[in-house]
Amino acid sequence: MDKSSHISVVLDLSPSQWHLSSLPHNPYPLSFKSFLSQVLAFLNLHIASKHENTLAVFGAFPGKSVMLYSSSNPASDSSDSGNPNIYRPFEIVDSRVVTRIEEELELIDDKEEEAPIGLVGALTKALCYINRITHPTTSTQSTIVEDPAILPDPRILILSVSPDLSTSYIPIMNSIFSAQKLKVIIDVCKVYGPNTVFLEQAAHLTGGSYVYLERRDALLQHLVMSHLPSPALRKLMAVPTQEKIDFRAACFCHKNIIDVGFVCSVCLSIFCAPVPVCSTCRTKFPIKTLQRLNASRAPALRPVNGAAKTSAPSTPSLPSTPR
Question: Where does the record place the region Disordered (predicted)?
Answer without folding.
Answer: 304-323
